[in-house]
Amino acid sequence: MSTPETHRAVEAVWRIESAKLIAGLARIVRDVGLAEELAQDALVAALEQWPESGIPPKPGAWLMATAKHRAIDQLRRGERQRQKYALLAHQAELDQAQSGPDLDAALDDDISDDLLRLVFVACHPVLSTEARVALTLRVVGGLRTDEIARAFLVSEPTVAQRIVRAKRTLAEAGVPFEIPEPAQRAARLSSVLEVIYLIFNEGYAATAGDDWMRPALCEEALRLGRILAELVPQDPEVHGLIGLLEIQASRSAARTDTSGQPVLLLDQDRRRWDQLLINRGLTALRRARALGGPPGPYVLQAAIAACHARARTPEETDWVQIASLYETLALVAPSPVVELNRAVALGMAYGPARGLELVDALTSEPALKDYHLLPSVRGDLLAKLGRAEEAREEFERAAALTRNERERAVLLERAAACR
């Protein structure tokens, strides 16, 4: 195998194995930053050795063994970490005493718990939202710093700084590498779900730049969510989030036209919706409901998405049910954005005047002051009421507020159509 081919193979292995590798190392050294450094050292070793020796039969085990040996070498030079060295050296001796299958079993031992610990640490509330997203994509998703920077349209040094600060904050706060106790788990799990949802949303409707969507981020969020669903199978909200993301992702191919311009939900060709993803999403929603208990915000949002997915045409959409679900969501997780979405549903279910009444009540909401979808929704309702000049002004204001070039073009087109 040529060197370029080997490098591509190494990158593929890294994407698959890096989270498990970092998680296993972090369990031993109790430090996410050090664990990632050791994993990166193993990756460099693979890039140096595999072009000559070939890819080993079990590349994940090779990376783990190499990382552990590098850890021992490094910890030998650091007297401050003698206890960690002793632990690593003892485990390395045990590994070396085992033969092939036994070694693999040892490396895979408790891997699910290790991954879950890593997810909880990377999404720890002690970190800022931006830091949680960057660190999760880095250590759990295996994305490079430049990939994260490109996805979020920020500079590479900015992302690198966020990751460095996140690791430092975790170390200084003494965040333990462990699954939270049951009393803390719900709050911590909420943070994990929020991070995955934020990653998906940035891919689904990019906040800035020239592209309407960034599919790679949607795919990464789905992958992280599916991993989490396997790790926490008894939590309804986890399956609710997966159901929501699967159904949302099913529309991806229909959300842009051949030139890359956005296509709004009611104008989409529903024959292009991915039925496999829809079925997976509906299955996840049924699983969430089967677990019982009052529905949480992600289960409710998945139920709303399911109403759209089940409608073969826009006219068949059960807007009355959607409006009812938004009303419940507003009680469970109140926010101005939820109220804005409820206004859209009310407008579709009971007429634009009903929706506009709620939107007008939101115009003084500080949180929506610079939110471009507020004037966009208001413009749509005004246009349906025949108030074309007012609608044009709202669409133009929305266009001035958005930072996404594709969305700006659509809003300006809608403004022009009101003239």
Task: Describe, in plain words, how this protein is organized in 3D.
With 419 residues, the protein is mainly alpha-helical. Among the domains are: 3-109; 123-176, Winged helix-like DNA-binding domain superfamily/Winged helix DNA-binding domain (Arc Repressor Mutant, subunit A, Orthogonal Bundle); 186-289, no CATH class. Helices cover 73% and strands 1% of the residues. The chain contains 20 helices and two strands. It has helices spanning 3-29, 32-53, 59-76, 82-97, 100-108, 111-122, 129-140, 145-152, 156-173, 182-204, 215-231, 236-249, 275-290, 297-310, 319-332, 336-350, 352-362, 373-384, 388-401, 405-417, and strands at residues 208-209, 403-404. The chain has a two-stranded parallel sheet. The radius of gyration is 24 Å and the shape is elongated. The relative contact order is 0.06.
